[in-house]
Amino acid sequence: MTADKIKAAALAHFANHGYSGASLSGIASDVGIKTPSIYAHFKNKDELFLAVTEEAIAREWEQATAYFKNRSSSFKEKLYGFLRSQKENYDEDERAKFWLRTSYFPPEHLHDQVMKDVYNLLDKMETLLLQEFKEAKEQEPQLNSLNIEHAAKAYIALLDGVFVELLYGGERRTEERLEASWYMYERALFS
């Protein structure tokens, strides 16, 4: 149980201060333990960071698959809704903030290890989107001439644009970019 509390506190510290700004003493203080007690559960800060990263990646994947399994919305509504949900998750959930910060700014000495996991998740997301596009293409006549590989990759690029604005642009700019990008993407696919 203490390991879970340590990871939860570490998540908040890493999400808000990055790897280098998070201290084990601050994490321990939030949990109500002394710093050396962390070492009973995690070998070092790197191991703790990677454990939090692993959980964040698993949660991102679970949320994405659960979202796209929902069949109550049209394909177009699903695509737009997923963009909106990513923004809302970032605004409301420290795990989403941590995940986004980590995927764009991994600690330099853990870069290769973290980016391997990031690209693995992105590849899985692209496969998930390809399946969604394939199913939509079979049901929606206006998508018949669509190259679904290009459409899925373009959607990932659209998500990346929203993520960059979340990190750098602030609330207003993110909202403007999300709406403008969706407007163009929607017109290209569904008009």
From TrEMBL:
Transcription keyword on record: yes
Residue ranges flagged as DNA-binding region: 23-42
Protein name: TetR/AcrR family transcriptional regulator
Keywords: DNA-binding, Transcription, Transcription regulation
Alphabetical list of PROSITE patterns matching this protein: HTH_TETR_2
Record SUPFAM superfamilies: Homeodomain-like (SSF46689), Tetracyclin repressor-like, C-terminal domain (SSF48498)
InterPro entries documented for this protein: Homeodomain-like_sf, HTH-type_TetR-like_transc_reg, HTH_TetR, Tet_transcr_reg_TetR-rel_C_sf
Annotated organism of origin: Fictibacillus terranigra
Domain HTH tetR-type: 1-60
